[in-house]
Give the backbone structure.
Amino acid sequence: MALFHSTYLQKRQPGVSRRDFQRLWRSHGDFAASVPAFWNNVERYIHNDPLENLVGLPGVTDAFDAVGELYYTSFETWVGMRDVMLNEVAPDEKRVFAGAPTSVRGMRTTFQPVSGLFKLFTLASFRDEDRRADGVALLAEHARYTLELEQFGAALRGFTITTAREASAGSGMQGFAHTSSSRDVMLVHHFADETSARAALTSADHARLEVAQDELFDWHSRILVMTRGWVLKGDNG
């Protein structure tokens, strides 16, 4: 089933410890679940906590404290959620997060069925308009190359790519950080556990993968976050 995939990266407020933030974030999830007009339209809801020990993980950032994923049955369902998202759910975020999210919101394509809860999120924008115009074909080729890499692709327990899709001007969704995308693409590489994730990210094949990504994406736009996921609604698929 094709799902609309809305993912945000967030930071905790100054002075809040990592543990206290995780409790706050889970309480925000409980609040979202208490809003029927929102919760009844969400197919999956996943909190991904970034790993604390990033030693030996090249390029992975510690700049974010949360990666949240929400899935809707369709783009149209998501657009129809504008008022409840902006007027009921978003205000509660002010007690939890520090500022606006970094996000990708669009349709997800699955290149390998998902099972692993340890995830490497890569958010990026295309290098130029030509690559953006050919994005579908280029991303499919990149996925094929990724899965063929023995030290990286063979370790995956799921691989998806979400491409940003913006709502029309008449939808009232544009201009809001909670309903727009700040990058063109998000790649999600899933792993069975932290050990296999670390082995894959420190392999020679991951270095080759980064060279391939440099051909596609603006290098300075790339954000890599390594996480462990917790499913709050639905499944991990």
